[in-house]
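Researcher: We're teaching a course module on how sequence relates to structure. For the next exercise, students receive a sequence and then see the predicted structure as tokens, so they can try to spot secondary structure elements on their own. Here is the exercise chain.
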Amino acid sequence: MNDLAGKHLVLGLTGGIAAYKSAELARRLQDRGATVQVVMTESATRFITAVTMQALTGRPVFTDQWDARQPNNMAHIDLSREADAIVVVPASTDFLAKLANGLCDDLLTTMCIARDCPLLVAPAMNLQMWSHPATRRNVARLVDDGVVVLGPASGDQACGEVGSGRMLEPHEILDDVIAFFQPKRLAGRRLLITAGPTREPVDPVRSITNHSSGKMGYAIARAAHEAGADVMLVSGPVSLATPRGVVRIDVETARQMHDVVMREATRADCFVAVAAVADWHVLNAADHKLKKTTTVEAGDGHAVPGLELRFEANPDILAAVAALPSPPYCVGFAAETEDLHGNAESKLARKKAQMIVGNLATEAFGRDDNALTLYTAAGRTVLERADKLVLARQLVAAIADRLPSTESR
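Model: And here is the predicted structure for the students to work with:
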């Protein structure tokens, strides 16, 4: 996807071993449609060469504030005026300190002080440097000044120690940059989202589940976070990474999902029920592994090989949330194999939800793309087939348009 199409970014590099990751980030930014202009400090060139970054971006790299390639010798002005944002990766302790105190003695710091575009920084340093009171004061001042601080993470560090201060990985920074440019239509809102399948045990090693991959729900969680929402994701068993900035709670069964959702729903502005929840659970699930030699009584009174399972209905999570005294805006999903319109419209009325998102299960489960139809009391809206994240952003925009004001809840 070209999430960054039309965006021009200045990628700043300061001195630090994490500078090698900036090479991958430069490539990833361009893969998403951005153009990238690199500016390096002299210290950064001790860790990765300007030649490398030029080869990756196809643009000459700037390191000197007196660079004569700029006709007016004002690279610190010209480069920033062309940019949609400046992204400094890595941002060293020294760079953060200079920026927080308005010091500019090289091209990168001078450009960042003279900019009229957003500035994002990804700190990278030893854990003691990150936790030092001076660094904490500087970062707090930068945040107050409107600088967006990405990370840092915690983990193994080049010095051999382990702790906070490690720079985010390139794919994490990429996600944060993409999210930065998304409209914040859900700022200040809380969304509760369910995703994935549920798994109902038959015995300790077997279960009944479905083909849901969780991709649509996870895409919606990411899109909601990009839109500025505080997102809690209640997930059945899937093999997907948690979207950045999203709080995830893992569950197995429908009843576990129900319990978590009902505990959190009263604090949500919107509940999006994407999970493919099992309608029944096994009432007589065994507490030991069932063997092939398990038998059941046949009609003539003789024992024959087989297994008899008894089922009981699971709670209807969407209907239960919609029935709360002061419910959030409720969005359900209808994954159908036939009569999509009839079943979705019936579900909208039956569940008392504000929106049902319908799709054909045979064309959605496990795929990276989908096609959706939104059903509300006002009618239908068709979202044509596209990547699931593209659809998720369209759905989030549609929800944002329809959410009641916080005062009306």
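Model: If you want an answer key for the exercise: The first helix runs from residue 20 to 31. The CA atoms of residues 143 and 149 lie 7 Å apart.
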